[in-house]
Amino acid sequence: MAEYRCFFCKRTISEDHVRRRVRCIYCGSKILFKPRTVETTIEAV
Ligand SMILES: [Zn+2]
Questions:
Q1: Cα separation of 21 and 32, whole Å?
Q2: Cα separation of 6 and 29, whole Å?
Q3: Ligand 1 centroid vs 7 CA: distance in angstroms?
Q4: How far is the CA of 30 from the centre of ligand 1 (A)?
Q5: Cα–Cα nearest to 8, from 21, 20, 22, 26
Q6: Centroid of ligand 1 to alpha carbon of 15 (angstroms)
Q7: 6-40 per-position pLDDT tens digit
Q8: Within a 13 Å sphere around the CA of 37, how many CA atoms are in the beta-carbon half?
Q9: Residue 28 near residue 21, CB atoms below 8 Å
Q10: How far does the centroid of ligand 1 lie from the alpha carbon of residue 44, in Å?
Q11: Are 42 and 24 spatial neighbours (Cβ–Cβ below 8 Å)?
Q12: What distance in angstroms lies between residue 20's CA and the mean position of ligand 1's atoms?
C-alpha cells in the first residue's frame, strides 16, 4: 500500500484516499507526493 505525503502539511495520506480524489484529507491541498520513491508530484487540475 503506497502512501502519499501532503506538500503543505506533510501528513501522510493513504493511496486509497488519493484514488478517489487527489486532495489532502487534512488541509485540502491538491499537491501530494510519494516520499519513498523518486519524488513524484501529482497535481490535480
Ligand atoms: Zn495537507
A1: 11
A2: 7
A3: 7
A4: 8
A5: 26
A6: 14
A7: 999 999 999 888 888 889 999 999 999 887 655 66
A8: 11
A9: no
A10: 14
A11: no
A12: 16
Here the cell at position 20 is 478517489
Distance 32 CA to ligand 1 centre (A): 8
Encoded amino acid at 41, one letter: T
Question: Which comes out higher in pLDDT, residue 16 or 42?
Answer: 16
In sequence order, the β-bridge partners of residue 43 are 31
The C-alpha atoms of residue 10 and residue 13 are separated, in whole angstroms, by 9
pTM above 0.70, yes or no: no
Q: How far is the CA of 28 from the centre of ligand 1 (A)?
A: 6
CA of 34 to the centre of ligand 1 (A): 13
11: cell is 501528513
